[in-house]
Amino acid sequence: MDNSFGYAIGTAGIKWGATEKAAWLAQTTIKRSYLEQVVSHIHALSDNFDIEQYGALSYSPEKYPLFAIKTRDWDNTKPTVLITGGIHGYETSGVHGALAFLSQKAQQYSRDFNILVVPCVSPWGYETINRWNPNAVDPNRSFYANSPAEESAALMKLVQAQQIHFLAHLDLHETTDSDESEFRPALAARDGKEYIADVVPDGFYGVGDTENPQHDFQKAIIDSVRHVTHIAPADSDGNIIGEPITQEGVINYPLKALGLCASVTDALYTSTTEVYPDSPRVTDQECNMAQVAAIIGALEYLKNNH
After folding, report:
1. Between 255 and which of 91, 137, 240, 263 could a Cys-Cys bridge form, CB atoms 3.0 to 4.6 Å apart?
2. E strands, the chain, where?
3. Which of these, 177, 208, 197, 183, lies nearest to 275 by C-alpha position?
4. Has domain 31-79+96-166 been given CATH number 3.40.630.10?
């Protein structure tokens, strides 16, 4: 294998095959416990919420059950909101921010909304602190028919089973320094492409839908989060992660075309949050609370404007 192109696995310009994917999987290790750090917190919510196991990952079903949490006073006349975290398992505040919202704020907002929360879509990724699943597939690029990621397929099946229209979907993510030190170089190597370095934005930003941007909704989220953490500035070209900003701290992606999780419900209002946990200006708790603030900003906007 030729490692001169900047990643330790593969050969420059050649897509990975089974050998390279196996080599990548072999160097992953378990670094934390999904059952101890996530599932135990989910079960602790059972007095106030309905908890549903909607599947389990085939890699190890006993280690990786998949859970959804629903508000109790469910009423199909109320608008319904989906909150997801841990699509990328290494993005920690997405998982723990969702759990914090459940324990601190969800019951308050259940008077106005049905709320369905899936705090950790990719538990193997959570344990290995990884963006991909064991097959070197990114679940957050796999929300389409016949998905190659069972994490994504299970969530799509759960959403469809609700047989209800979702008004909004908040998908909780992080952008980390490891995006540039590990995950984007690995992606380029896997796909046989050249890795072009980018700048990791210092601060929170949100991602709307190119086809349905909902500028005021995105602004409400940013304005709520700025009370907890700083908002990412644009780079010298007016971009964040290579995309032009549409307003302070907001960029847009074509959700459906990219197979992103935020497209899973066809909701009118969607936002992908991006917390920056590697900033010296924030703590882990502040990152979690930034995710909570993003959800609150979205829900308050919907209460007042929809």
Report:
1. 263
2. 49-56, 65-71, 80-85, 114-118, 168-174, 205-209, 239-240, 243-244, 250-253, 269-275
3. 177
4. yes
Instruction: Give the total residue count for the chain.
Output: 306
What Rg value do the Cα atoms of the chain yield, rounded? 19
> 171-201, pLDDT tens digit by residue?
999 999 999 999 999 999 999 999 999 999 9
C-alpha–C-alpha distance, residues 206 and 221, integer Å? 8
Angular region, 208: left φ>0, alpha ψ -120 to 50, beta rest: beta
Side-chain half-sphere CA neighbours of 107 within 13 A: 8
With CA atoms as reference, report the closest residue to 299 among 48, 52, 110, 31. Answer: 110
Q: Let me know: does 125 contact 114? Beta carbons within 8 Å.
A: no
Q: What pTM value is reported for the model?
A: 0.97
Using DSSP's 3-state secondary structure scheme, residue 118 falls into strand
Cβ atoms of 287 and 293 within 8 Å: the answer is no
Report percent pLDDT > 70 for the chain: 98
Residue corresponding to tokens 């841990």: 86
Domain locations in the chain as residue ranges: 31-79+96-166
**130 vs 149: CA distance, rounded Å:** 14
CA distance 61 to 55: 8
Residue type, 306: H
Task: Name the maximum alpha-carbon separation found in the chain.
Answer: 59
CA distances to 193, 215, 239, 282, 292 from 134, in Å: 21, 37, 32, 31, 29
